[in-house]
Amino acid sequence: MAQNPLSLSKNLRLPKDTILQTTIINTINRFLNEKEKANAMNSAVLRENLPATSALLDEFKKIERSEKFKDSLFYKCQLISLTELDSLNFLAQVSYSGLYENTIYPRAVFKLLLTKKDNNYYVSSPIKGNTSDWKKTKSGNKTVYSHSSLDPGKTKNYFKTIETFDKKLNSPVKEETFFFCTNFVEAQQVLGIDYKSDFNGRNTGVLSANEDNHFLHVDGYFIPEKGSFDPHDLWHSRLHQVLPVEKINRPVDEGTAYLYGGSWGFSWEEILEKFKVFAKNNPGANWLELYNESKNFDEKAKYPLNVDFVINALIVRKIEKEKGFPVVLNLLTCGPKEKGNANYFLALEKLSGITKDRFNDLVNNLIAEK
Question: Residue ranges per domain, the chain?
Answer without folding.
Answer: 7-125, 130-230, 250-368
